[in-house]
Amino acid sequence: MEIQRQTIKGSIYTYIGVFLGFVINVFIFAKLLKTEEIGFLKLLVHFVLIFSNVAALGFNSVITRLFTYFRDKEKNHNGFLFLTFFVIFIGFLLFLIIFIFLKPILLENYSDADLFIKYIDFIIPFTFFYLIFTVLDTYNKVLYDIILGIFFKEIFIRILVLISVVLYFFSYINFHQFVIFYVISFCSPAVFIILVLIYRREFNLFPRLDFLTKEMKKNMFSVSVFGLITGLSAMAISSIDTLMLASIVDLQNLGIYNICFYFGTIILIPSRALLKITSAVIADLWKKNDIESIKIIYQKTCINQTLVALLFFVGIWGNVDNIFRILEGFESGKYVIFFISVANLIAMIAGTNGVIIDTSKYYKVHTYLILMFVGIIIITNYIFIPIYGIVGAAFASMISTLFFNFSKYLFLHIKFNMKVFNYKYIILFSIAFFSYFAVFFIKSFENLYFDIFIRSSIIFIIYLSAVYFFRISDDINKKIFYFFIKLKKII
């Protein structure tokens, strides 16, 4: 029930954030900023994501996997937060050293990206505050509160960014000041999450080093090292296309890519809250060696995520021409939307496979698989970007994601006999194809928003009706049933 409650609440915040993100990216950034400026902002953020992972030294994995052994609120969780800050302080100093040596290489490699060169030093404060936020968000998550972090990341930051771009649009601030406000928008949640933890009496920096046994230190070091490799690899996976496009192509095409990329990521929305809370729950289940409960969670997340992801995919691709009626001048990114959507659909079908491996004693296997994933995505990007540009980057992401998730599925299937796929998936994909072709031959209406409404409504009604009729998911059927019960009472 706790997973369901927080997932629902977290999903609501996430959807609000998606709406704000949609407005900011599609109706504001795409209309008010140059594609070069959009590309620069995305490039800056991606470097911060990578560097903050370096500075975290893999300790987010330690928090997720080993905090359960420190958990004791009366004893301030045995000094765990002191240990956390000690590690990330060392990590940030290490990042500074790396950045100093790496800066000349970055300046040479991105010599054509004038905006990035001008604001490259903004990476330092940006990384510091974002590092603190991500670590404390993970800490707060293992305290069984996923909502606060989702609120800050999905809503709070976007509201501040929205305010900043509105001020820029009405000429109250210039572009330089807008960049400063933009960075502050991402940095401020670190301060607020500290204040919230202090208010809850969960922010205690008193050490308790006697709790750290030799065995615990060994486990923490091992988890941290592999967590660092995994975290950096994950960031490389999510950022390599952006970094390589900025270097091989230009910031202008990168701006088009990132706006179109956004539509593909909508498919991942339902999984964000779910994966956050299930990681803590699954870690506790591994501690109890309750493999059967883990299997149940795995099976349910796979079918439920597939069901929702397919609906989103059909809805997006069924309205793809309408998207470019809004995004005039971005038409070269049409198949970026398609391939990124397929890649994220594959990730959703995989459910919690990564979380299950990462929180088990076989977490090293997940690291090895991620390293292979990084290798594949780098190779495929080098092959396809020079040939197909931004579409090549999206195609490379799709191929790499397919290989990665199939590898994780095979491992869980062979090692733990975790079987998730059955005849329902064939029915579900058939429903999705039928829903798409139901609107494929409909002639476009002159009114853009009426056209979107008609197509989306037809897809939604056909898809959910068939899903309910074929009983694809008991959880979804119950939600639909209770919805109509409440609707009947209102009527």
Strand tally is 0
* Overall mean confidence score, pLDDT: 86
Low-pLDDT sequence parts: none
> Terminal Cα separation, in Å?
29 Å
Gross geometry: globular
Number of discrete domains: 2
Question: Which structural class is indicated by helix and strand composition?
Answer: mainly alpha
User: What is the number of helical segments per DSSP (H or I, 4+ residues)?
Assistant: 20
Q: How much helix is in the residues?
A: over 70%
Radius of gyration from the alpha-carbon trace, in angstroms: 23 Å
The ordered H/E elements are HHHHHHHHHHHHHHHHHHHH
Biggest sheet character: none
The proportion of residues in beta strands is under 5%
Tell me about this structure.
With about 500 residues, the chain is mostly helical. The protein folds into 2 domains: about 1-250, no CATH class; about 260-490, no CATH class. Helices cover about 85% and strands about 0% of the residues. The chain has 20 helices and no strands. It has helices at about 1-30, 35-55, 60-70, 75-110, 115-120, 125-140, 145-170, 175-200, 215-250, 250-265, 270-285, 290-320, 320-325, 335-350, 355-360, 365-390, 390-415, 425-440, 450-470, 475-490. α2 packs across α6 (about 125-140), α7 packs antiparallel against α8 (about 175-200) and α14 runs parallel beside α17. It is globular and about 70 Å long. The two termini are about 30 Å apart.
In short:
The chain folds into 2 domains: 1-248, no CATH class; 260-491, no CATH class.
